[in-house]
Automatic annotation (TrEMBL):
Pfam families: Histone. GO terms for molecular function: DNA binding; protein heterodimerization activity; structural constituent of chromatin. SMART domains: H3. Residues 21-34 have a biased composition (Polar residues). It comes from the Eukaryota. InterPro entries: H2A/H2B/H3 (IPR007125), Histone-fold (IPR009072), Histone_H3/CENP-A (IPR000164). Residues 1-12 have a biased composition (Basic residues). This is Centromere A. Belongs to the histone H3 family. One of its GO terms (cellular component) is nucleus. It is found in: Chromosome; Nucleus. Keywords: Chromosome, DNA-binding, Nucleosome core, Nucleus.
Length: 141
């Protein structure tokens, strides 16, 4: 006969309280169990759904207000001290469209570098290689 591990059962002096006493009256009516496990999707299904969602959409992915703040902050570095520039909403929109197109192309090239090295995970070194291969200004000049 094979040996098997057994653990001694711990007997307490006080019996444990039943979980029904601690439940709210609404949860007993619906019949939902407090120990019911939440449904988890298989790995990758949510990612594929997000890919389809973002491929179908044409709207901008970077929030407008934080992007406008960054543009104004960068502008202050190139403007003489004390001078203030004002940005038109259409100009900010055009810069944001160009920036997102540039980033999208960069990520596409970086992912091609990832696939070339027989991986599926995009790493920072792939982005550095894509920028190096594109040259100083990338695709935009």
């Amino acid at each position: 006969m094979a040996r098997s591990k057994t653990s001694s059962k711990r007997v307490s002096k006080y019996p444990s309280k039943s979980p029904i006493l601690h439940q709210s009256p609404n949860s007993r009516i619906t019949g939902s169990s407090p120990h019911q496990r939440k449904y988890r999707r298989r790995p990758g299904t949510v990612a594929l759904r997000e890919i389809r969602k973002y491929q179908a959409s044409t709207d901008l992915l970077i929030a407008k207000l934080p992007f406008a703040r960054v543009v104004r902050e960068v502008t202050l570095k190139f403007v003489p001290h004390g001078e203030m520039w004002r940005w038109n909403a259409e100009a900010l929109h055009a810069i944001q469209c160009a920036a997102e197109a540039f980033l999208q192309g960069l990520f596409e090239d970086a992912y091609l570098c990832t696939l070339h090295s027989k991986r599926v995970t995009l790493l920072p070194r792939d982005i550095r290689l894509a920028r190096q291969l594109r040259g100083r200004y990338g695709d935009f000049i």
